[in-house]
Amino acid sequence: MRLLCLPITLLAAAMLCFGQKQEVKELQRDVALLQDSVRILQSSLDQKTAALTVLVQQTLDNVNRTNTNIALLNAALSDQEKKVAAPVAGVGQKIDQLTEEFRFVSESIKDLNSRMSKLQMQLQDTVNTIKTLQAPPPPPGAISGGPPPGMSAQTTYENAMRDKSAGNLDLALQGFNDYLRYFPDTDFSPNAQFYVGEIYFQKGDYDNASKAFDAVLEKYSENNKTPDAHFMKGLSLLKSGQRNDAYKEFSYVVTKYPASDVAGKSRLEIKKLGLRVPAASSATRRRGKR
Predict the structure, then answer these.
(1) Measuring CA to CA, how many Å separate 24 from each of 13, 19, 36?
(2) If DSSP codes are grouped into helix, strand and coil, which group holds residue 245?
(3) Is residue 187 a part of any domain in this protein?
């Protein structure tokens, strides 16, 4: 019995040993396959890493070239800026110099005009004095047509302006009217007539104000007070309730004197009336372009 059991045990041990060897072989085969897969993955990874390294290097090269080009461009721009800045600065200085010279010339012309006007008034005073001395004495009860003795155009005008600035409107009105009565044809006559209308306007007498401004336009040719007289006449008419006539005056200022100080005020008054602001005439625009 014991002899029979021994072969069976050996057979079982042999079979167990054979099974273990088979498992070892399969395990070794699996390990070999896994190692092959790892080698394949490593090879693919190495190839992709090399390609990526090449791309990164190319990108870095492009970035370096771009930076170099930008640096060269900045240097060129800086050089051009230096070359342009000096002439531009010189032009700016020249313009400033010309502006200052023009301002000086303009002030000189204004001063010369003022002196010429004063000389004209003094000449008119001298002429009036000579006429007074040469004229025979008027008969008793007659009214002399010239200014009273000792009255001068310059003094009369300056006194009237001083009274107007001080708010003495009645005295100023009398002074300007006296000036217009005795000295109606000087360079300051349009100004005096305008100030008469302005005083009436300040006093609220819009009818007489309108007539006074109208006199500036009718009695005197184109002068420095013409645009202002049209505008103030328009305001006087507007205050009197004459909207249509006021609109005509404002429109005339806008079309005939678009660059004047009162053109903007006229446009504003037209807009307040809710009416259309006319465009400047073509002739006026051509003169402005010259």
Answers:
(1) 16, 9, 18
(2) helix
(3) yes
Helices (H), 135-168: 153-165
Count CB atoms within 10 A of the CB of residue 223: 17
Q: Tell me whether residue 84 is in a domain.
A: no
* Residue 196 domain boundaries: 150-289
pLDDT digit string (tens) for the chain, length 290 residues: 544 555 667 666 667 666 777 888 788 888 888 888 888 888 888 888 888 888 888 888 888 888 888 888 888 887 777 777 666 666 767 777 776 776 666 666 666 666 666 676 666 666 555 644 444 444 333 344 678 888 899 999 999 999 999 999 999 999 999 999 999 999 999 999 999 999 999 999 999 999 999 999 999 988 999 999 999 999 999 999 999 999 999 999 999 999 999 999 999 999 999 999 998 765 555 444 43
Alpha-carbon Rg for the chain, nearest whole angstrom, is 52
**Opening angle at CA 187, ends 239 and 112, nearest 5:** 120
* Cβ-Cβ contacts under 8 Å for 188 (sequence gap 6 or more): 117, 121, 153, 157, 179
pTM exceeding the 0.85 threshold for the entire prediction: no
C-alpha 273/C-alpha 279 separation (Å) is 17
Q: Are 262 and 194 in contact (CB under 8 A)?
A: no
Q: What is the CATH number of the domain that holds 222?
A: 1.25.40.10
Tell me the residue length of the chain.
Answer: 290
